[in-house]
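Hi there. Long-time user, first ticket. I'm pasting a complex I've been working with (about 640 residues overall). I'd like to know whether the download I got is complete or cut off, because the file seemed smaller than I expected. Thanks.
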Amino acid sequence: MENRPTIENIRVAHQRIRPYIHKTPVLTCNALNEIVGANLFFKCENFQKVGAFKFRGACNTVFSLSNSEASRGVVTHSSGNHAAALALAARKRGISPRIVMPSNAPKVKIEAVKNYGGIITFCEPTLASRESTAAKVIEETGATMIHPFNDYRIIAGQGTAALELIEEIIDLDYILAPVGGGGLLSGTAITAKALKPTIKIIGCEPKNADDAYRSIKAGKIIPPDNPNTIADGLKTSLGNKTFPIIRELVDKIVLVTEEQIITAMRYIFERMKIIVEPSSAVAFAVLLSKKLNVTDKNVGIIISGGNVDFSKFFEGIRCK
Amino acid sequence: MENRPTIENIRVAHQRIRPYIHKTPVLTCNALNEIVGANLFFKCENFQKVGAFKFRGACNTVFSLSNSEASRGVVTHSSGNHAAALALAARKRGISPRIVMPSNAPKVKIEAVKNYGGIITFCEPTLASRESTAAKVIEETGATMIHPFNDYRIIAGQGTAALELIEEIIDLDYILAPVGGGGLLSGTAITAKALKPTIKIIGCEPKNADDAYRSIKAGKIIPPDNPNTIADGLKTSLGNKTFPIIRELVDKIVLVTEEQIITAMRYIFERMKIIVEPSSAVAFAVLLSKKLNVTDKNVGIIISGGNVDFSKFFEGIRCK
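Hi, the file is complete. Here it is re-exported in full:
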């Protein structure tokens, strides 16, 4: 895919991935509606396969490959949700998913990738080592590199979450999505602006990783400056494919503090009884922060994922 | 209500409480189906108002009171989910909920009861003090005492969860429910055996609080012997109203270890991305334990509640 995806491309992507993905539910919660003073619609990609929206993009990309490309497998050097998503998508197509991971990656992430059938090659925990190791894998196998967000097939896949959301809730005024590398946000914006141009698209970002906010302000990609946030999925820089889409179609980027992210996550745990990862809580944090006036509006929120490390929590329970 | 509830009473209860309760969803999870080798249907009362099935029974009881009874309010000396449920049910009817709580009750439980409008009277942390304080409240106000489980109106209310489950999933072979005081289990058994006598009803109990198991074996109520389980909702003894129903209609009581309960809770958190309290995990723990052969069967599981204290978890996140 050489051009920015259109809504038609996103519809095709949806048809392509439909046999493999979950159509995730849209949940509502009276208690949270009352707190915010708006009608909130949570598109729950935490219930997606591998526990994150990333499976949509990975699936679309893997099933877009030609047979001859596919036969040589796929490779990535992300160690988060994209790695697990790519591993599972490759397994669904019956091809080899090679995942380059730093040797110091958390055990829980290594296990997840292995569980989904990923073939792991460990590297040093530096970007240089990740890239050279991936290059070596490609040289040896001919595998196709699948970038976690800076790829139009990925962007088209991520846009299918908003497609389902808007088809189910027809009168949305806003859609909020977190922004890291920008795959989810740019896909969401293309879908929403094509289907209903009046929907306002809000990118939600941690103040401690505000590179997208600064990039939009500067009119060019500004890489993150030593980002330190619990929303670890949002530390990445925008890419040259996601940035122009976001600049053109996203109405606003709103920043939230770490405290606001944690409070939002806790509200969602305690009131909705669902598990969301910190990156997902960033969008609800924007609403709690009152930095965006959505009073009485219909607000869609894309809950991006639910992969939380509960090791310490369960150790704590055990100790009682 | 002077006699054991029938399915007709449970249907009437359902009509009575329907305007106030959530019709909770029945969730499925491929990953957990594969692990157990059966088709699991989780009736998610963790999404019920106040985060637990207890709201059904409290609501049925409060709305069963005559106007003159109701005008004098209601009282209980439970400090858990029943207290919150009674407080909210009373607020829905516009009457006073008086809750007797030990002075050393966890702050999170005190806050929950206050949030739902409960009027708290603190007492010493002994059963004698709880009972005498409640008696005093009744003397002063004429409020009606609402027992958390040993009351036919409560039992009928709790039976409505199984009613919704069986109406939605018509071909269940088993229903599993946790057993503490027995309100949920006895209501579930009455409903299921009336609607489909072939459904096997399994009571699920921690080994460390195995009083129901021992009571059934002995043919009389055996009080718990210093129960020590993380499933703190299941420490109570059966009552003289719940015991005969359970003895007659429940097919089996299966015990699980603390380790199995924690493992089950973690599976549900990590695979289903929903929050369940330890008492709820006990039923899934029975399936993981392989102490019950349900291979290829359709198994309903009543997830009783989702009120978990996450204070330490979020403090841990904050410290990073």
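A couple of notes from our side: Chain A touches chain B through 25 residues (CB under 8 Å). The radius of gyration of chain A is 19 Å.
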